[in-house]
Specification:
Length: about 240
Amino acid sequence: MNITVINGTEKHGVTCRLKELFLAEFKERANITEFDLPKDCPHFCSGCISCLINGENTCKDAEYIGRIDQSLLEADLIVMTSPAYVFHATGAMKAFLDHFAYRWLPHRPAPEMFGKRAVILTQCLGAGAKSAAKDIRHSLSWWGISKIGVFTGALMGDIVWEKLSGKKQMELTGKVRKLSHKFAQIDYTKPAHTNLMTKMKFFVCRGMQQSLHKNDPAYLDGAYWARQGWLGKARPWRTQNM
């Protein structure tokens, strides 16, 4: 089993502690690959849209993005972590997600994503963990992932694990371990179910790509959909079940 972890900060604080608690149940049976942001994706997306028009390999940061993309494609479980900064995911996480615009359903989603599962771990001082998780969940769902587990932790009074009350530590630990146990019981030899909302998004994008490909067969996204067979009867969630 392969797990890819994207950490929205290099800081080894409460979020890191929660991540380690979640991964504990997988340590003995999974190959875990972690990427720390911004170290492993150090540059902002410049909005040049070269990845959309000319292909992801033409991105100025392709050396970083390609390595992470390959790890995501090989993963059975994707884990995304981020503390909440001003009610949102970290800037490093947002910069990372911007780089993967080409993987969104309206462009060139990877068929592998439709069978994957993901977990999002966020926490904050007070409020904001839920909106931070929403930032990440939005992108994952548009990559084609339907099965997404979410943990949002609210801290009160301090942001250092060792300074949290024993009661708060136990509360957070219990909730994370419960989520970990739930995902540890999954049979990862079988692809995740693709939900109705994801299928609806797919068919809307399919109609758009059919029109674009008809008007310009050389258009990169339309040609990609045609190669996948998605403009015909092929569907990515069926591929995962073969």
